[in-house]
Specification:
By secondary structure, the protein is α+β, with helices and mostly antiparallel strands. Helix content is 27%, strand content 26%. Strands 1-2-3-15-7-4 form a six-stranded mixed sheet. A six-stranded mixed sheet has the order 5-6-9-8-10-14. Helix 3 links the parallel strand 5 and strand 6. The radius of gyration is 17 Å and the shape is globular.
Length: 266
C-alpha cells in the first residue's frame, strides 16, 4: 500500500526501501491554484495561470529536494512512444527539449540527478526502477497507451538500453481511475481483444454497463514481461472517487489540473 508521508505527496513502500532513488506522486493538496486547478496543479500544458504553476513547481522542489529544472515531463498524446533521457539531454536548449519530449508517453534514463515523470488525472502513472542496472522509467498509461502496449514497449526499451533484467525491476501503479467506476463503451472491448488482451480478465459488466480495469491490464503486461508479481505495488487509490484529493478529468472535465509521478536516481 502507499504511504502518505505528506498531504501533498505520496510515496510507495516498495520504492521507499531504496536510498538510491527519490520518488513521489503529487496530490491536489497544498498548492496555490484555484477553481478546477485547485490547488496543487502541476500540469504544464493546462490553462492554469503560468505563475501559479511555477509556484507549485517551487513547492514541489521544496518538498522533494529536487530542482525543478531537473524535472523532465513529456507532452503526452496517449501514444506508446518512449524517449530516453541521455547524458546530453540536460544541456540542450529548452525549445529543443520541448521538441524532443513532444508526443512522448514514457521516459527512461540511467542518468543520476535527472527526475523523469508523467502527468495524470485518471490515467495510470507507472514508475519503474532497476536496482541492479540503476535505471528508471516513468510511464503514462491511459486506455490508448495500455491497449497499444506502452508498458511492454517500455520494458523492451529498458532491456535494450540498460540491459535490464525484468525479474529485477520494481514497479508501481499510482493513483488512477479504478475498475469500479471506469465505465467504457462496448467497442473498446473489441480494440483490446484485437490487441491480444484477454478481455474477460480486464472488463467487467454490471447492470448492462461495461467497466475497464486498467490496473489489471497493466499489471498483466508487467508480469508477462518478466516482472515478478511481488515486485509490483498497486496504490489502489481511485482518482475519480477521491477527487477532492486527486485530479480527475472525468470529474472536472478538460480543465482538470494534473498530478505528477516522478522518479530520480541519486
Amino acid at each position: 500500500m502507499s504511504s502518505n508521508t505528506n498531504p501533498c505527496l505520496i510515496q510507495y513502500q516498495i520504492l521507499k526501501r531504496f536510498d538510491s532513488i527519490r520518488h513521489f506522486t503529487t496530490t491536489r493538496i497544498g498548492g496555490v491554484s484555484v477553481g478546477n486547478y485547485s490547488s496543487f496543479n502541476l500540469g504544464l500544458f493546462t490553462s492554469d495561470l503560468p505563475e501559479n504553476i511555477s509556484q507549485n513547481f517551487d513547492l514541489l522542489g521544496s518538498l522533494t529536494g529536487i530542482d525543478k529544472n531537473t524535472i523532465h515531463l513529456p507532452f503526452q498524446t496517449h501514444s506508446n512512444r518512449i524517449f530516453q533521457i541521455g547524458e546530453n539531454f540536460p544541456g540542450q536548449h529548452d525549445e529543443t527539449k520541448k521538441s524532443l519530449l513532444h508526443g512522448i508517453d514514457a521516459l527512461i534514463t540511467d542518468i543520476p540527478g535527472q527526475c523523469i515523470g508523467v502527468s495524470t488525472a485518471d490515467c495510470v502513472p507507472i514508475l519503474l526502477y532497476d536496482p541492479v542496472c540503476k535505471a528508471i522509467g516513468a510511464v503514462h498509461a491511459g486506455w490508448r497507451g495500455t491497449c497499444s502496449g506502452i508498458v511492454t514497449k517500455t520494458l523492451t526499451k529498458m532491456i535494450s538500453a540498460f540491459q535490464s533484467d525484468p525479474a529485477n525491476l520494481i514497479a508501481v501503479l499510482g493513483p488512477s481511475i479504478s475498475p469500479d467506476v471506469y465505465e467504457v463503451g462496448a467497442p473498446l472491448m473489441d480494440e483490446f481483444r484485437e490487441a491480444g488482451f484477454e478481455t474477460k480478465e480486464i472488463f467487467s459488466e454490471k447492470n448492462g454497463r461495461i467497466f475497464l480495469d486498467l490496473w489489471k491490464a497493466n499489471k498483466q503486461m508487467l508480469t508477462d514481461g518478466g516482472v515478478k508479481e511481488e515486485n509490483i505495488e498497486i496504490s489502489g487509490i481511485c482518482t475519480y472517487s477521491q477527487h477532492e484529493n486527486f485530479f480527475s478529468a472525468r470529474r472536472l472535465g478538460i480543465s482538470s489540473g494534473r498530478m505528477i509521478s516522478g522518479i530520480m536516481l541519486i
